[in-house]
């Protein structure tokens, strides 16, 4: 009789335990559902925030001015200029060889005379048309205007160092021609020579002439 009561008691306890298990499981499942809903809501909020940030970035990029990058300028390398020689002279030009120097020079000169009583041939440019026009129709030899530019000069000097010393030279011409008066207007060479040290070869002023006068 005692054993039967114990068995009944154990079965009653087991029944109570079996009845309480579904209630606990339902409560735990409800908590998980609530937690999942909270996480989904949080993820949705993050996605919406990310979308709003992306829209703001796109709007800012569209509002910015468009900057077009220009192509870099092409730099053309230039060959270095030839160094001036050690004996460079002011006003002279150095040729591409870097040694020879030249200088151009010249002068323009015009002479005019007015003869009241006859033409003076010594100051007349024979080829000048002003000598052909008489200013006095009654007497062509009076009141004559004579103009000439025959003494206009132009020339070239050059210089170059060498093993035997500096080589210099000159070429100069005017329009005096070959006459002994004020010229014919034709080209005449006055100087054409080369000079090395104390030696000179070519055409120039005679050494017996006083060049100061």
Entry keywords:
single chain, 213 residues, alpha+beta, six-stranded antiparallel β-sheet, two-stranded antiparallel ribbon, 1 helix, 8 strands, disordered N terminus
Structure, briefly:
The protein contains 1 helix and 8 strands, in the order αββββββββ. It is an alpha+beta fold and 213 residues long.
Write structural notes for this entry:
The chain is α+β, with helices and mostly antiparallel strands. The protein has one helix at residues 2-63; strands at residues 93-94, 101-107, 111-115, 144-148, 153-160, 167-174, 188-196, 199-203. The strands form two sheets. The chain has a six-stranded antiparallel β-sheet with strand order 1-2-5-6-7-8, with no helix packed on it. A two-stranded antiparallel ribbon has the order 3-4. β1 and β2 form a beta hairpin. The chain is elongated and about 155 Å long. The termini are far apart. The model is unreliable at 1-20 (pLDDT under 50).
């Amino acid at each position: 009789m005692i054993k039967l009561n114990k068995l009944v008691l154990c079965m009653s306890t087991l029944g109570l335990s079996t009845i309480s298990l579904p209630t606990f499981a339902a409560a735990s499942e409800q908590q998980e559902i609530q937690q999942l809903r909270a996480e989904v809501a949080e993820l949705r909020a993050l996605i919406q925030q990310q979308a709003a940030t992306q829209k703001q970035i796109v709007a800012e990029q569209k509002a910015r001015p468009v900057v077009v990058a220009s192509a870099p300028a092409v730099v053309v390398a230039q060959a270095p200029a030839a160094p001036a020689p050690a004996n460079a002279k002011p006003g002279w030009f150095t040729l591409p060889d870097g040694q020879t120097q030249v200088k151009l020079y010249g002068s323009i000169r015009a002479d005019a005379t007015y003869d009241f009583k006859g033409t003076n041939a010594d100051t007349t440019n024979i080829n000048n048309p002003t000598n052909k026009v008489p200013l006095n129709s009654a007497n062509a030899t009076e009141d004559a205007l004579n103009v000439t530019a025959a003494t206009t000069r132009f020339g070239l000097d050059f210089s170059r160092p060498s093993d035997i010393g500096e080589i210099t030279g000159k070429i100069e011409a005017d329009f005096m021609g070959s006459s002994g008066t004020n010229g014919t207007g034709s080209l005449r060479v006055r100087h054409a020579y080369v000079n090395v040290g104390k030696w000179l070869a070519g055409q120039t002023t005679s050494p017996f002439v006083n060049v100061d006068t």
